[in-house]
Amino acid sequence: MTVPYHRFRKQLEDGESTCETTVVSFLAQIRAHESLNAFVTVLEDRALEKAREIDRKLAQGGAGSLAGMVVAVKDLFAMKHVRTTCGSRILERYHSPYDSAVVGRLEEEDAIVIGKTNMDEFGMGSSSENSAYGPVLNPRDPGRTPGGSSGGSAAAVAAGLAMTAIGSDTGGSVRQPAALTGVVGLRPTYGRISRYGLIAFASSLDTVGIFSSDVTDCAILLQALAGRDPRDATSSLLPVPDYAEALRSSVRGLTFGLPREYYGEGLSPEVGEAIHAVVSLIRESGGEIREISLPLTDYGIATYYLICTAEASSNLARYDGVKFGLRIDPEGDLRRMIEETRHEGFGSEVKRRIMLGTYVLSAGYYDAYYLKAQRVRTLIRRDFENAFRECDVLIGPTSPTTAFRLGEKSEDPMAMYLSDIYTVTAPLAGLPAISIPAGLDSRGLPIGLQLTGRAFQEENLLRAGYWIEQVRIRQTGCCQPA
Ligand code: GLN
Q1: In terms of CB atoms within 10 Å, which end of the chain has fewer, N or C?
Q2: Fold for domain 5-250+451-476?
Q3: Which residues pair with 437 in a beta bridge?
Q4: Listed residue (123, 162, 184, 195) closest to 38, CA to CA
Q5: Which residues are catalytic?
Q6: How far is the CA of 109 from the centre of ligand 1 (A)?
Q7: Cβ of 171 less than 6 Å from ligand 1
Q8: Which residues contact 247 (CB under 8 A, 6 or more apart)?
Q9: Residue ranges covered by each domain of the chain
Q10: Residue 151 in contact with residue 119, Cβ under 8 Å?
Q11: How confident is the model at residue 479 (pLDDT cuts 50, 70, 90)?
Q12: pLDDT in tens, 61-111
């Protein structure tokens, strides 16, 4: 872990550091940690050039709100003239002709994109093992997964290879890897950050997410990225509040809901204890705790995996060897070309999801699976609406366990899917949620605590998250695992 950006910014302004020397040292760290396999592409020359440009701007005045922030970007965000693989062989040689909104905003605000991070192919997975470029290792224990699908982004922040990182969260791909690597991970409300140039997996669920080493940096980055973008029709017109303001208030006056269903079977006792320890602290400090119920929690996984596979089967139809990416054309036969390209280009998890999704959308099964899942989705949304009548923020675990071993679940898709139990429901309801480090288990592996809020009330998550972070710093002398 490096110094958080907000502290580095002060060093920059006080003339104690420069962007160029900082980028040089990050590049050295990236080389020293190559075995983590966190990056697919490192943008060495581009980052150095940008660093020099920002150093000049800082000297002259007029540098942006993210000046000098070294950011790693998940390799599913388009970046002009840079390879964007999505962790897939099918896009191995694809160079985007345009910048995604996120990359555009980062560069407008003078952040420095240091590289594109490794990930589960098309965002499908919970361990970053489904990448055509090899698995990502967890910097806390290289025999374990960093979670997924944004595992490269999480590992980059946890290992100090970037100050912050961008990921995408469809069903937990920012929060779960944040939990498993001991960093902060935010999934904002659906529509809060433009997805223009984010390669689609499941369009009714995909969001841009943020990784950082602390809550303050998360707020800074959210401030810079949130807001309406006419190029993304799903981006919200609601004004963007001042997120830094949220970091100044305490948990007093906030009511926390403790979902009864989150503390049952499958939850590691050590994770449960860590969450309860934080709950006790909140109670002692004047925050109100109320037990609530989310009765449909058990249906979250089935609903999510029906909807996301249906949407994926439709979104991934565009990879046909004609428009972009890989083309395998043995005999000049159109049908064979499409078949061979998809056969060679996609990995097995992606194929599994395309088949599942095509099946649940097919005539005769549509009503039984897809339509039913849509109805249950509405009920899940109502569950949350009812809960938020009684509280402001829900508190629970991010992941049922700490980081699992590489290979442990890769042969068993059901076991892998079940690890998403706590992260898939907020996306189904379009709600924001954040994972905050909440201590270590007996093996020294990070535990993540998840806070879920009402739509467009990221302030409450940042406020509560910041408070928890400060209390933990006071308690332990350090908020992050060593
Ligand atoms: N693990 C979940 C899945 O495999 C979530 C992925 C994501 O959020 N991109 O679908």
Answers
A1: C
A2: Amidase signature (AS) enzymes (3.90.1300)
A3: 448
A4: 162
A5: 74, 149, 173
A6: 29
A7: yes
A8: 215, 216, 219, 462, 463, 466
A9: 5-250+451-476, 298-375
A10: yes
A11: very low
A12: 999 999 999 999 999 999 999 999 999 999 999 999 999 999 999 999 999
